[in-house]
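Cont'd.
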Amino acid sequence: MAEGFFPLEVRGLGVTLGGHAAIVNAELAIDGSKRVVVLGANGAGKSVLLRLLHGLIAPTAGTILWAGATERPRAQAMVFQRPVMLRRGAAANVEYALHVNGVHGEEGRRRAAEAIERVGLAHLAERQARVLSGGEQQRLALARAWALRPRLIFLDEPTSSLDPAAATEVERIVGEIHAAGTAIVMTTHNLGFARRMADEVVFLHQGRIAEQTPAETLFHSPRSAEAAQFLKGELPWNGSPRTSPG
Amino acid sequence: MSDIPASLAHALRLVTGGDPALWGIVALSLQVSVASALFACALGLPLGGLVAACRFPGRRGVIVLLNALLGLPSVVVGLVVYLLLSRAGPLGELGILFTPAAIVVAQSILVLPVVAALARQFVEDAWDEYREQLTSLGVSAVRAVPTLLWDLRYSLLTVVMLGFGRAASEVGAVMIVGGNIDGVTRVMTTAIALETSKGDLPLALGLGVVLITVVLALNAAAYALREWSARRHG
């Protein structure tokens, strides 16, 4: 690969949005080999962190390094909680993404068809994208991201608004994308999703990274008090960790 | 007042009977109004889209100007175009004053702000929804404009129809730059004004019926197309 990518390192990263410190002094290192889940309560700053890494928001402090360089490599994609589809067919949406990234004509059609096939939507390729169900649209969004052949895909709460069956299918596809060699960084507040999908967890609390640890460790012996309380369902969404009674 | 039913009946006979004078005026009106709407849309849709999606110094001023121009007095536009196209004016050499081309110029100037201001509003709303997704795909704001305009094409038909309606209903500027010359620059609106002042109500009413029918039919078609699009595209 021509452009440097991993390790992805975050140093002293911060951003203030609307006067509120959404991310504070974040330190992070991602080597690309593991499925990383950014876990935290609602409002913890998970989506903001992902947008910072993907370049959709400019940080107000700190640096993001891609293999030691500050220039963000292009071979990355993002799938949003509610993906936006253009008013055209499912396949045409994927072809559009390829077209704006320099893949045109027959090659674009071939790659779009291949990606749609891999997410199990071949039978809906000509259907208008916006009339697909939420789960189908999310799979189409994964196909659109995957077709670009990125080295890294960011997934922002990819199953939050889906029913269990659709969520299971999305999880299967994410696993397949990772197995095919694409790095995955995703956010969730759902412990079940995190347990199933994470190799490594970045636990975020009120804009601060409380810990970055292997999933096994986090779920059995979390290092931070915030993560421990979150796992027990006791972490107030807008407060400090509770002190033990007595 | 008792003349009105008789005049209306006469008007309907003129319309249904294929009166050549009436239909000649109708044809010219449609030609200049369609041409004006097309010119205004060709400039106004991208302009509105760019103002909506791009951030640049003075953007707010441009938005205020576009909105202010919605209320552009048509006779003033007619006067300015007249001065520009008159023999002594800077564009006098074109020799198009008192021709349909002059009417197209004046109407295009009047329709342009309508199209640009409304397109800006449509595109800005859509850009709020699309921005992150398109930016993530590597699409710049400028490059997003044609994508947004195409994606909003059925909604923007309303804007095109409004533009056409504005052009087709124009009187003052058309009278000044066209001169209301019979068989050359006489369009429906100027003919209605003239015939009414002469007391020839049947022709004026006949033209009025056609004008309203055309505008209603086009808007109905645009509405039907939008509804179809909403069902098909979601």
